[in-house]
Specification:
- By secondary structure, this protein is an alpha+beta fold.
- The protein has helices at residues 20-24, 116-129, 226-234, 295-304, 307-313, 343-352, 382-395, 409-412, 432-437, 455-465, 469-484, and strands spanning 35-39, 73-75, 81-83, 86-91, 97-102, 138-143, 148-153, 190-196, 200-205, 218-222, 240-243, 255-260, 265-269, 279-280, 285-286, 319-321, 365-366, 369-370, 372-378, 401-407, 420-425, 489-495, 497-502, 505-506, 529-530.
- The strands form 7 sheets. It has a 7-stranded mixed sheet with strand order 8-9-10-1-11-23-12, with helices on one face. A 6-stranded mixed sheet has the order 16-22-13-21-19-20.
- α4 (295-304) runs antiparallel to α6 and α10 (455-465) packs antiparallel against α11 (469-484).
- It is globular, with a radius of gyration of 23 Å.
Length: 532
Amino acid sequence: METKYIIGAVIAVIAIIGIGAVALGGGHTQHAPNELVTCVAAHGEEPEFGFDPMHGWGYHDSGTEPLIQSTLLKRDANNTFVNDLATSYNISSDYKEYTVEIRDDVKFTDGNPLTAEDVAFSYNKAKELGEGADLSSLNEAKADGNTKIVFTLNKSDSTFINKLTDVGIVPKANYNDSTYGQNPIGSGPYKLAQWDKGQQFILEKNPDYYGKEPYFEKITNLFLDPDAAFAAVKNGDVDIAEVPVSYANETVPGFHMEYFDSIDVRGISLPTQMDTGKKIGDDNLTYGNNVTGDPAIREALNVGINRSELVKGSLNGFGNVSYNGVANQLPWAYQSTFTDGDINGAKKILQDAGWNDTNGDGIVEKNGTKASFSIYYNSKATERQAIAVAVAEQAKAIGIEIEPVGGSWDDIDPVKFQQGVVWGFGSADPYEIEHQYDSRVAGQGYDNPEILNDTSVDLLIDAAMTQDLNSSYGTWSQAAQQANSNYPFLWIGTMDYTYFVNDTLDISNGTHIIYPHGGDIWGNIYDWKRIQ
């Protein structure tokens, strides 16, 4: 699910050392072996509201590691739920009540104990603000004594267990919505020592942390653009730097590349409705497009575009083709029934539907409408620009004219239901299918931006929510297959995450959690160490 106010912020999470020499590449910065300097989320932005889980810090589509705060559950390298604050949990047979028992030995960094009241408060406040995890199923979280929390839902939702990984816990007693993010009190492995806005933040180890003690005493994360991040690597001023895939074939002495396969998929929404001037959603935006509203246009693009070439070019080969937006690592993945790059097949689909090039300009028309529309992309994301430009070039071969348009999310928002948009998705929570395709959430925020209206998809989603989570994966798969039979997206592929890592570091590749949209390099920080 796209969430512009936290894009990348969730990955940008840790700290050490001053920014001056690092950002400008002014020589090697000296620091202790148990201190770490990083620049991750070079493609993202620092958190607008600071390090506040109530405003989305520490969340990005699959319960990422907030570091400063604790969560009830975490995920391990096998994508299995493991306890963090929780010691046990119970789910009612109708999936409308979740009861969680938590540890009784956890303290916040201000010395006060963390209790069930703090957990209940955090979930209720996160639901109220609605800026991180999707807690729409939650009716109320309520403490029952000091160590038990009862989550009452407003509908059956077997996916809610995923939300137990998603919310960092804040203290009820002294939480302030306007100031907490600048001076966060948490119970995670690190605490915020310093935040120089626009430059860096520094974390120091929490001596009272109840879990596995991390190796690094201090971590500094720098906010640098991709070019500056790569310069910092070449100058030896950082230990780890996340870089776009366009840098992934570079070599730097003293560093090696770490490549992480992800479930982070890129796809282009194709409005499924005609533009009749109708409006939708809380923002009352016009929806529909008289070109992509024709199913033949959407099918022809899906059949004619060569995804392998796009992954090779736009993602520099660091990714995997996706025909349906469901990464192969996910248990509701399925194989699509078509192959791409079939230009002749795409042309026939258009011709059979009445799209023909009547004036010889290479672009087909139908009933006076030219097969022409725009694809918007966030200009800060270089891979999205590359995808939009490459798709536009390929589409010419099948007679469709596409104009790539870059801009900020503020530029994209007014037209996101009328034109194509390059989106990023990728969650280990199957509820993402609801966000992508359910007609009942169409046009709400970034949900169902293609405005798909298929009641059979909605019914399959409802059925999946009432099934045991493991049993539900087959139903979620059916929902995705039915949705994609309408070709509401032109799915491109999943992208790898690429990092320059100093040769003196071991970031324990084998224990990394699954990489969702936005990534989470910090998921196994407890296993990192310096080996030289």
